[in-house]
């Protein structure tokens, strides 16, 4: 299995940080997405197990 931790982002451009999220793709296929967060420095702290 593969365990992936998405922790945080820093200094996102102001025009793009309304509700930032991360998408996770394996072999060009989107397999997961984090919950949207607010702010220019969002903290996700999410774990994905594949």
TrEMBL record:
InterPro entries: C2_dom, C2_domain_sf. Residues 1-50 form the C2 domain. SUPFAM superfamilies: C2 domain (Calcium/lipid-binding domain, CaLB). It holds the Pfam family C2. PROSITE patterns: C2 (PS50004). Signal peptide: none annotated. This is C2 domain-containing protein. It comes from Cirrhinus mrigala.
